[in-house]
Design goal:
It comes from Kitasatospora gansuensis. By secondary structure, the chain is of the alpha+beta class. It has a single domain, classed as Jelly Rolls. The chain contains three helices and eleven strands. The strands form three sheets. It has a five-stranded antiparallel β-sheet with strand order 1-2-9-4-7, with helices on one face. Helix 1 runs antiparallel to helix 2. Bound molecules: fe (ii) ion. Fe (ii) ion binds next to strand 3 and strand 8. The site of fe (ii) ion (FE2) has 4 residues, from strand 3 and strand 8.
């Protein structure tokens, strides 16, 4: 995933338009970040797996790396909606985020490995704290800090997930705050 280039916007289906309207109401309540993330996850839930949510182009992967389709960036910068398409085995870096985040698996299966940062003399290392397998139809929401993780497509087919971030991805290009290249355990 790039960290600086702005992303092109794409067309949306009517169902995705409805989802954006629901997210606007949820985010507009102005609750703390962790609660907003959970509300956004609840918005995603009824749309996961629906065949009319994404266009064919938005379900298309890229052999080079997992692919990001920006479905919406709210003009006031309060949230963005992204569809990520992963071919089998594709994964992110170990990273954390600029903002709260809600995710839902639309198709396939993803596995998240979570880490915590442990001081190690003058530097630090990452210790894995657990793996979470997310099949299609599952959601989660979280807010920094303590959100270091790595996500991969752990299934045998294409995986597609929806991500809502409390940031303007049309401007930022990515939700990633930092990519970690420290030694890892686990
Ligand atoms: Fe992430």
């Amino acid at each position: 995933m790039t960290t600086s280039a702005a992303l092109p916007r794409v067309d949306r289906t009517e169902r995705a338009d409805a989802l954006v309207a629901e997210l606007r109401l949820a985010v507009g309540r102005g609750l703390p970040p962790d609660l907003t993330a959970h509300l956004a996850a609840e918005c995603l839930l009824p749309h996961l797996g629906a065949p009319d949510l994404l266009t064919g182009a938005q379900l298309t992967g890229d052999a080079a790396q997992y692919r990001q389709h920006l479905l919406h960036a709210e003009p006031d910068g309060s949230f963005s909606l992204v569809a990520l398409v992963w071919l089998p085995g594709q994964h992110t870096s170990v990273h954390d985020h600029l903002s709260w985040c809600a995710t839902g698996v639309h198709l396939g299966e993803e596995t998240e490995r979570r880490y915590r940062l442990v001081p190690d003399g003058p530097t630090a290392r990452l210790v894995a704290t657990g793996d979470v397998v997310n099949p299609s139809g599952t959601v989660c929401g979280f807010a920094p800090p303590g959100d270091i993780h790595r996500v991969r497509n752990s299934g045998t087919g294409t995986a597609v997930s929806l991500h809502v971030y409390g940031a303007d991805l049309a401007r930022l290009g990515s939700s990633i705050r930092r990519v970690y290249q420290l030694p890892t355990e686990g």
